[in-house]
Amino acid sequence: MRNKGGQAGSEWEQLGTIAFRWPQVTKVRVTALVGNTYHARVHYSRASENGAAGNEVDVDARPSDAINLAVRFDAPVFVNKGVAQRMAHSVRGHEAPELEVIRSCREEMLHIEDPTVMVKLQLQMAVAEERYEDATRLRDQIEQMLSTDRALALVVALESALEGHRYEEAVALRDKLIELRENSAQTSKSMGTPGMILWALAALAALSLAGAGSNERCVSDGPRRDCGWMGINDLACEARGCCWAPVFDSNAPNRPWCFYKSAAVSEYEMASVRETGVGFVGELHQTTSGLPYLGPDIKQLKLSVDYETSSRLHVKISDLEDKRWAVPESLMPRPAASRAATNPLYTFSFEQRPFGFAVARNEDGNVLFDTNGHSLFFKNQYLELTSPVPESSALYGIGERTRSDGIRLQRNGVPTTMWNKDTAAADADTNLYGSHPFLMAIEEGGNAHGIFLLNSNGMDVVLTESTISYRWGYSNVEEVETVVKQYEKADIPLEAMWTDIDYMDGFRDFTLDPNNFGMSQMRTLVKKLHANGQRWVPIIDPGIKVDPGYPAYDDGIREDIFLKDVKGVRYIGKVRTGRTRRAWVLLVLACTPDLGRKGFRGDIACSQNISLNLHLELPPYSINNANRAAPLSEKTIPVSLVHHDGTPEYDAHNLYGFSEAVLTHRALADILTERPFVLTRSSFAGSGKYAAHWSGDNSATWDDLRWSIGSVLNSNLFGMPLVGADICGFNGQTTEELCARWISLGAFYPFSRAHSNRYPQELYLWDGVAAAARKALKMRVRLIPYLYTAFKKAASEGGTVASPLWYEFPQDANTHNNSRQFLLGSGLLVSPVLEEGADHVEAYIPEGTWYNIWDYSVVQGPQALLLPCPLGEIQVHLRAGTVIPMQRAARTTKEAAAGPLDLVVALPPPGAGRAPGLRHGDQHAEGTVYMDEGAAAVDGPDSLTVRFSARVSGQRGHLITAAALRDGASTKSVPSLGTVTVLGAECGYPEHPGKQAGGSLLTGMRARMRAKVNDVEHPSNSVRYDAERRVLELAAVNGDLTRGAVIKWGCEYDFPAV
């Protein structure tokens, strides 16, 4: 790096510190942005045998939305786009002589179109897949192309000179490029080199558009749709036909400087409309066209509006003439209505010309979605809808991504991209493994609605203040057995053992490694696990190994189901030898080499110069993939490959993991007599019906601990209730404190699993973690009846298992930004410690009375409280008004289910939370438990639902249990009623001369409880009442849940002599 005087020196101007996510990097200072290159000094430490060694390195990096500074150990460092733009502005005007050199060189290079772009894309894929022979050939191909295109060769040389800070050489190359371009222009009279022809045509298109009186215009103060890339300058932006307007407002750091022209430039009119039995259909004809650089318009559209149910309105806009790709009904059935719903919640209205539509809620007239006054773009590869959204509305959904700022969506104009990508969950604020185009809005006053955008193609959703525009496994069986024994020794609940792909024979799916996971050994292990009430869960990676004689491979060849390129050549995907990610991603191996001692050897010609469809690989509109408009095929297969049924990967990409889960679930249902369990990472809307979900490769950091709550809540909003994060962190090395806090939280994830990469972090390895795990996981086991019932409700009726606080308290604006606590079902509030070194937790207590689940102490809401929470503990509260079914603590759910069912009746204060029919001062609570044998079908012949209703009036209370049992159902697995605990059980003070003023009791006066079960007096030694804590416990009730029971209790008093 050179200082302002142009000489090597140590004068570094700190323009800003880049945020980083890599433990070795301690500091990154951007020192200048010149032209299109960031100059930065990276300070880092690297562990060595002698301890940590400090280092620093000077680097240059091409900017993008997420800057990857390629330092010596390949540490990725990320910078916020807005921060980088402001830093770029702060160096503008520096007088270093090289600034003008670099700027002029970059401007000149913009005139040259690069015809090697597709070959470079293939080269990038070959290197990523370690196909080095192909990479060498492709490199030679690029060099051959450069040798025949002098202008392009000059650009490459100029790029090298700039990156090497050889500015005198760069000036000479720039001048040669100018001379070549001018000579070419004189020769051709107009266009010059072929590369310049494309640029000039784009410029002519823009000129002709303007000359024709186009209504496209630059609106700097309105919403902006990003047209550029990180580091684009004004000339490059305008050459794309876009608008350039820098933004230096600290309140809008992410607004793009280069953006598409804005206006109502694409319009349709309603040419005809007719009613149907469920709504109406209409025909739309285009009247005004716009944004030609995004491709041709579809001139005629079909509008369908169906009032499917009273609470669901279905609006569909499609191509009138051509059947376009849609999510297959076989994967996501759309229930068809035979007639329009009566008393619908919503009304659909439209304007004829220009066409626009609005959806309003009938109850209050609020308009929920309104496209009037906004363009409707409908092109071959670009669709756009825009609607205002009230600034007061709180918005949620649109994923999947780890949101560092909580689950409430930020209205900063930054696109939220839906494109399934193999990105670690530890990388916050970028698109991850799933796509869920669902948006939920909560309005002032608590009303809410949802919008589901059913489309599986890549999608950007842009929200502004006012609008929306749309470990690695165990090495052998003995190690697995040791882990099981250590969990038992530590008295930590263990429900299942998971093995990664290490168990496979040469990484072949559906096989066992004969040396380390022999069949007889595995059968013995699984029998032991099943005898203990535990399970074995293996991973299946859908990469099918190329190996003639391997049934999965042979079947695929015979059925001709593997992916092919556009010319019908089977595609080879590369799975890294010895390592592969645990993701449901498509890496299908489709040639037929034999397996040699040193790897793969090809026996037949298998072309790797695959044919790609440029329009699919590089579409006219680039979604904000990876926050930098990365190619759609990055870290995945080419999107122009074709599936066995002719569907391009471009359309089906986001559905692959979903379809994998659906087919796996169906196959297991056919094979097994038990209910299938499938866990998937890649997902789409509807995945929750077939599979559980985990948030992906997170890291052992406190940030990841905090972010995990948002991931779990969003997945529940997306219809995947059985979800969790890798407890203690997957990547990196955890600490005892972090892991203890994580298991305290993770025990209350709907799906609770400790999972790690290289570093062992079983929960028994630290005393503090083991203690935290015992406490939290045993409580989880106790709560299984409550959780199981919540899952049953979500499966049957929809809804969540883990939910944000606003889900139950939408009118309370204090809940709308809360991503640090959550509810389990509607009756449990979980408030974890999320900061290192903390021994208290700041918790918001919503309206009502809440009981601490550990000691039954009481807090009253709504209010924010600072609650004590030492290491190994977590704050969990029961909501008054609920009856919580529980079971005895045990090491497995099977062991616990063999015992009785306990109930905790959480009563509100007298007169609070009144139910219909109650008198003033009465107390009421209710709840439900769903039970079955756990393996057969939901709502099968062995299933049982019991409802509980508790009421207290004055001195007397009762609890009624009512069972819903199918005729002829087996009751052998139904537990008896065990202990009933009543919280908030008050003994009012009777009229007696011994009562003092103010209602307190005289010294010596004692209140006690009596109870009856089905009118039989309950033994007094089984009735315990703590008047100070207001807790009544009835032990050994032994009630028959299948026949129902009535439990009564009341207060009696022993009075002192007067």
TrEMBL record:
Q: Where is the signal peptide?
A: none
* Class of the enzyme per the UniProt entry, highest EC level: hydrolase
Domain annotation P-type: ranges: 216-262
Where in the cell is the protein located?
Membrane
**Keywords, in A-Z order:** Coiled coil, Disulfide bond, Glycoprotein, Glycosidase, Hydrolase, Membrane, Signal
The protein's Enzyme Commission number: 3.2.1.20
A Gene Ontology molecular function term for this protein is:
carbohydrate binding
Chief localisation class: membrane
Q: Is the keyword Hydrolase in the record?
A: yes
Cite the InterPro entries for this sequence.
BFN_sf, Bi_nuclease_dom, Gal_mutarotase_sf_dom, GH, Glyco_hydro_31_C, Glyco_hydro_31_CS, Glyco_hydro_31_N_dom, Glyco_hydro_31_TIM
Q: Name one GO cellular component term.
A: membrane
Reaction catalysed?
Hydrolysis of terminal, non-reducing (1->4)-linked alpha-D-glucose residues with release of alpha-D-glucose
Q: Which residues form a coiled coil?
A: 118-145
Q: Which domain of life is it from?
A: Eukaryota
Q: What does this protein do?
A: Bifunctional nuclease with both RNase and DNase activities. Involved in basal defense response. Participates in abscisic acid-derived callose deposition following infection by a necrotrophic pathogen.
Biological processes annotated in GO: carbohydrate metabolic process
Using the record's annotation, list all stretches that form the BFN domain: 1-91
Per the record, the similarity remark reads: Belongs to the glycosyl hydrolase 31 family. Belongs to the bifunctional nuclease family.
| Cysteine disulfide links | C227-C242
UniProt name for this protein: alpha-glucosidase
- Protein species of origin: Ostreobium quekettii
